[in-house]
Every structure is written in C-alpha cells, then in structure tokens.
Amino acid sequence: MKRITTYLLATCILLSMGGCSTTNDPSSASESTPMESEEHAKDITSSDVNDDATSSVKPSVLNCAWNDEPTSLDLIKYSGANDLKLIWNLYEPLVRIENGQIIGAGAESWTVSDDGLTYTFELRDNEWSDGIKVKAEDYAYELKRQADPDNMFSYASDYFNIKNFEAVYNGELDKDKLGVCAEDDNTLVIELEYPNTTFLSSVELYPDRSDIVEKYGNDHGFSPDTMVYSGPFKLTSWEHNSSVVLEKNENYWDAGNVKLDSVNLHIINDESTRLTNFQSGAIDYVSCSDSDHLELFRNSDEMYEEHAQSARTYMFLFNCKNELMKNSKIRQALSLSINRDEICSILDSSLTTPAYGLIPPATVVGTLDYRKNVGEPLIELGDSVEDVKALFTDGLKELGISDSIEDITITLSCPSDSLSQENAEYYKNMWEKALGITVEINMQEFSTYKSLIWSDEYQVATTAWGGSIEPRFMLTRWLPDNQSQWDNDEYSKLVEEGEQSSDESVRLKKYAEAEKLLVADNAAIAPIKYDGYSIFYYNYVHGAVNDPFSNVGFKTMYIE
Amino acid sequence: MIAVVFLTLTATFFLVHTIRGDPFTSKVDALDPKTRQQYILRYGTDKSILEQYAIFLRNLAKGDLGVSLSNNTSTVNDVIRNCMPSSLIVGSISYFLSFVLGFLAGIVCSYSKNKLLRSVLITLFMLGISIPVFIVAPVYQQLFSVKLGILPASGWGKPENLVLPIISMIPITAVHVFKHTKNGIKAARNSGYYRAAKQRGFSEIYIFKRHILKNASPALLTVIISGVSGLFTGAFVIEKVFAIPGIGFSFVTAISKRDYPIILGLNIAFTGIYVIFILLGDIIQALLFPRFKEGQY
What we know:
- The structure holds two protein chains of two kinds.
- Chain A has 19 helices and 21 strands.
- By secondary structure, chain A is of the alpha+beta class.
- In chain A, strands 11, 12, 13, 16, 17, 18 and 19 form a seven-stranded mixed β-sheet that branches. Chain A has a four-stranded mixed β-sheet with strand order 1-10-9-8, with helices on one face. In chain A, strands 4-5-7-6 form a four-stranded antiparallel β-sheet, covered by helices on one side.
- Chain A is globular.
- Chain B is built from 14 helices and no strands.
- The two termini of chain B are 26 Å apart.
- Chain B has helices at 2-18, 23-27, 33-43, 49-61, 76-111, 115-130, 133-147, 163-189, 192-199, 204-233, 236-241, 247-256, 260-288, 291-294.
- Classes of the chains: A alpha+beta, B mainly alpha.
- At the A-B interface, helix 1, helix 8 and helix 16 of A face helix 2, helix 3, helix 5, helix 6 and helix 7 of B.
C-alpha cells in the first residue's frame, strides 16, 4: 500500500514538474560524454542484440561502480584498495600475479643469484604514455622515493625485505645506499636483506618519472594532467567524488592484448544505488551480498554470477589484558560456542565460509596451498572440548571469580553501521543461549571504533583482516603491540622462523604452529568466517580475474 | 557576526579533537608505527590541544586552512570549489520549485471550494514530509530508472541527472511554504481588515493582492531565508543516494575520516554563509517591511 502511494506521489510530483521539462530533454543526451553505457542499456532491453553486428566499430566501453573515491594515485601517497586497483591499470609493475602465477610485466625476465639475495631484472621495451622509454632508472627512482623518510610512505614496512630499506626509512642511511641499482636502461638489480622466495609476490615494484614528479610536486597523482602512464590504461578524467575515466594506453607494450577502449568508474557510495544502476544497465557488473538482490539477479538470464573470495577473515578480538578475557579458557569457550555454519548460511546467504582458522583459503606457502595442507585448528579444539559451559566455568575458577556463569556480563563492541549491528545482535543471542551469560553491545562510530580496538579499553570486539598471498602478513599482525593486547614469545619466534626460512615445507610448518597457538591454544582471537561475495556480470562482459591476490586490473576484461 | 563565526569555530575545533579516533588510524589498516609517528610529528597532532589551537588560529590569520589529511593534496578551497557547484545547482533548482509549488498549492488549498482537492493536497504534502528521503529516493530510482528506463539512477554531469534528486528534495521545503501560505491566508481571512474589505465589495483577488499577500509575506520571507543557507551546505542523504559530488557528502565523509582541516574549513564556510544570510534577511525585512523595525507587527 505504501509503495503504491509513493508511486502515486512520484507521478504527481513529476507531472507537476512539467514546467521545467527542459532539464529532461532527451535530445541533450546525444551529445554526452561516454559516461553512461547507453548502448548497453539498450542492448539489454532489446532482444536483437546479435543483429547489431556493426558493434566492431563501436568503442568498447566498460562501466563499473566503486564505493569510494581514490585518495591519491601518487605511488608514495596511495592508501587503500581503491587506489591500488587503479594503480594496477596505470603503472606497469615489474611482475604481475595472475591466478597465483607470477608473470613478467615491466620485466621480461629475471634471474636470482644462488644465495637468493640478488634479483636481476631485464626490462621490456615499454613506453610511457608521452612516448619516452620506460627505463630501469624509473623503477629505481620510485623505490628510493618510497624509502625516503620524508615521504612517509604508508606501506613502507612491506618493503623492509629490500637491503637497507628499513635503515633508509628510519633515516639512518642515505637513500643512495638502498639495495637497488639501474645497471643500464634495461637492467635493474635489487638486493635483499635476507633470502625470501616470496619476494616477488609480496611487494609491488612500480616505475615513476622523476621529471614529472618534480614538476608537479604535491599535485602529482591527483589529476590526469599531473601524471604519465606506463600501464595498460591512462587516466583521462577524474571528477572528484563522481567519476574516473580510463582510456587505453596505445604506447603500452602489450596494447594489442588490451581489448577495452575505455573504462568509466562511477563513484557511488550507496550500495542500493549501485545495485539499481546495475539493474538499469548503467553499469556492467556489480558485487552483491544482499539476499533480496541475489535472488533477483540469479533469476535473470541476462547476467551470470561469479563467486569471489576476498582473502579476508572476520573475527572476534579478545582483549587479553581485560580482567575476564585474560583467561584463555574463557576465550576458548567463547570461540567454541558460536555456530559458524549458521552464521554463514543465515546472515550471509552462504556467500561466506565458516572460519576455524585465521588464514583464509587461496593463501599459499610457496607452491603449497595453505588450507589444503593445514587442518583448521579450531576444529581439532572443538572435538576435544565436550562442554563449553564447563570450560567457561573452569576459566572463572582459575581467575578466582566466584560468581556463577549466569551473573557474568561481557561487552561486545562493534561499529555502528546497520550490518555490523545486525551481526552483533546475532552473536549476542548465540552466546547468551550457549553459555547463559549476558552480552551487552557497545556500538561506536567507525573511526572511534577503530581507535577503540587498538586500545586496551574494550573487552570483545569484531573486526576483519585481509591477508596477502602468504600467511606471513596476517600472522605478523599479532606480533607484540597488537589489537588483542596479546604477547607471546613462542609465537613471535615461530613467525620469525617461518618468515626467514626458504624451505616451503618448513615455512608451512612454522606458520601452522603459529596459527594454532594464536587461534586454538591461546585463542587470542576467534575467527568467525572467511569473506566471500558474489559478482554479477551482464552476459556481454568477460575476462575478469577475481582471484584475491591477482593484480591484473582491467587488462584482461572485454565486452562481446 | 565575526564573534559568532569565531565561537562556532572554536567549539568545533575542540569538539572534533575530543572525539575519539584520529586521521591516521582511519587511513591504513596496518600503518607502520614509525610511519604513524612521522605523520603525527608532521601534522603536530601530538601537541597539546591548546597548542594546536594556537597554531590553527595563527594559520587561519594567514588565510591558510591547511591541506586534507586523507589525501595530502586537496586544500579546503579545492573541496569547496569541487563540491559547492553541484550542491548549489541541485539545491537552488529544487528550492525554487518547492517555493513555487508550495505557494501555489497553499493558495489553491485556501481558496478552492472543492473539498476533495483540498484533502488531496493536504495528504500529498503530509506524505511529502512524513516519508523520509532515503525511502522515497530508492523508490524513484526503481521506478524511473529500472522499470521505465527513462532516467539515470545516479550520477552527475548531465541535465537528466538532476531530475530525481530534485523531485526527491522538493517536498522538504515545499511543505513549509505550503503550510505558511495556507495559515497566513487563513489568519488574514479571519481578520477585521478582510471582513471590512469584503463588506466594501472588493473582489477576492484584489484583497489577496493588496492585503493578504502583504501581510503574509514577512512570515514567508523568514521561511525562504532560513532555507537558503541550506543550499550551500548540501543535503547529505540526497547526495549519497544519487552519488552527487556535493559538499554535504564531503563534510560527513571528512568527519568520519577525522580530516580535521577539511572539517574546520567547511565549518568556517558554512557558518559564514549562514550568518551572512541571516543578516541579509534582516536587512531585506527592514527595507521591505519597516514596521518590523518598530516592533509593531
């Protein structure tokens, strides 16, 4: 009834707006920029898609939507996934990862010295978008720039594996001492601090041009005319908070294999607006986790679905300095008393998978698939514990708390958005039912919340961490000074030993032991679920790579 | 006037610095402690709040509002320059239309003898204010963009992008104009001068033009002026739902990112605009309706 009334209201207001119909003049759309995929929108509604065989003349344009504006495309200032996703398309890294394989990109080939410390790259013949050759010096220049302490590069610690990077970054050494050297225009040599067989998959090495950087200074990377491009696409327009347009870079070495002529990225913060735009055909694909829309899209034969993992693990953080949470039995009991299968199927429409470990699927150790080789530690722990309530009571006894379990109240902190709130209510009910305790929910605005979970003022909190291709990144999040306020020497030792071993089976073993210590034996965190979502594409969109660690960007996508 | 701006500014400064969270925690999930320390040193967020306030005032005196902490590049001026036009376009068109619609509907509703028409108008306007924008807007998007396929669901840069935001925004102000017009006319028609004019045989239209309009105008003018400043500050929900790169959305985003210079800079701009419009309103009223000055109304 309400909907009918609103439709009626909408029509009335529109009719009453007849006087200003000039703003809605369809003829003005004909001279528009390629911002909206009108041709696709029409393709979907008309049945004679294939009759339109003249499409080869039409430029191949992909329209998609992102939730947020990139912050900066300067390689020392970028932060967050959206920036990086654009950088993949605009700059050519030495190597790219495509479905777990390392493939030469800016580098045609490379050799590693016997001691595993020196990498020598032979570069391809690639040109910047202004026609100047991409030189080894450009890669060396950018790496030195990222190490320069004045530039405050946010991801610097990921590069500490490179010789002297950490010392330069800490201001102890001059940046000329950095372990990178351009031997000639085509040869780049990088030296490591210690051997690391995963070096190429753990850091992304990009070139930039010193003349451009110096010319534009602080404005570099914030608008199309302050940058030059070495990747498959170039940035041609950036309307802040509204849209980003990429066009094919004809100077790119592999331009023959880039099939899209341009990509329009619409910045749409509101999820329901993104979905509506997809339904109307204004964008060509969309990621979705909303159950109503999932059903709607799955019933349509104009589109297909791909399930994607994001290599993120959702978890509870326990503040191990808290009076109650400092006991590991209490933490274990809380971890074991939630029903992960139910959470994934009911709250997430089975798009996520139950997590009984920290390291998400798709993570590898060298050539070994981590999750296929290491059993999830919580399953083992769950099998050994018969009564979680008794485990919790044991914990209370160890702490010398004489209250009965029914008198215990714990506080679960979560961000104040509706989704987190809904999930928190669900967790609360599960714990109250399984243990008989009382759970209070403490909601906080997102930034406040983020600061809270880095302090020791919370008791239990929800969060999520994204991993990188090897378990190292996620595991190092629980070295001392972590969100769980947990300090364990054995854990630190295991992670360090794993990190520095070049034997993949040793590495796997060390990482597995560390994970078990963190998740099961000590239960400093309680993993909940591995993230997953669906992407819906119209049938004419092809070639997307959805592997969470691939960085190929739009290069492989095409429209047919 | 300057005192008002200054007080608001000071209050905002202390408020944003006392809420928990900082721009660097929100920035990168795993910011290296050393990098974090560098950021803190560079932006001076380790200094005492009074010291930071003094630095802020000193820069403000030089006209330097600082650079965004979230992208290190855009200044407050950039944000205003990029975002103000879109908010202003959507705001002013919908404001103008809502005034016209509300005013005409108010007159029709007062003078029409058709009871059904009156009820329909009142119901429509009641619905307009009671159904929140965040519910109406998606309904419009579904209807015009998905079902009918005649308008884009969101976006910016083309005339047709304006239609849905504007029709979603109209009820917000139109309702107030409608109500004030209707009540103003009603009050006037109950007054002595109306009955006197009627008895002297003047037509309704003549009385309306010569007397009622004149008497109802001051109240309407207040509604208009108090709404105008809203045009510059944007409408957060509308801008979010229709993906309009406007100032309201930027402001809210800056708060959630704890981007202090942007929050404070926009705050100065907003307060300034608001104060100027209130002042303008007072001047216009004093010029048009001198009785106000003498307090005889």
